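Dear Dr. H.,

I hope your travels went smoothly. While you were away I took the liberty of generating a structure for the chain from your last submission, since the lab meeting agenda had it listed for discussion. I wanted you to have the full record in hand beforehand rather than looking at slides cold. The sequence, exactly as received, is reproduced here:
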Amino acid sequence: MRGELEFSPVMIAILFLAFLGISFFMGMLIHSAFVYEDKENLKRDSRKAWVLSMTAGTGITSWMFYYGYYINFFN
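The corresponding predicted structure, in token form, is as follows:
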């Protein structure tokens, strides 16, 4: 029997690209909800707001990927 990989390199690349795409769009959703409210201390093109939103988007997407892995393999 051949030593088959559980995760092929192409599958890992697709998962990584999907993670980046979902993180970016999640960050965009958070940014539009966060910045376009009546915030007096954050401007619309603020680097601080952009970094905070993208970090939150990455965190939410990381949780979604981890939770999906946990549900599928440990239950």
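Two observations you may find useful: Residues 45-75 form one domain. The mean pLDDT is 84.

With kind regards,
E. W.
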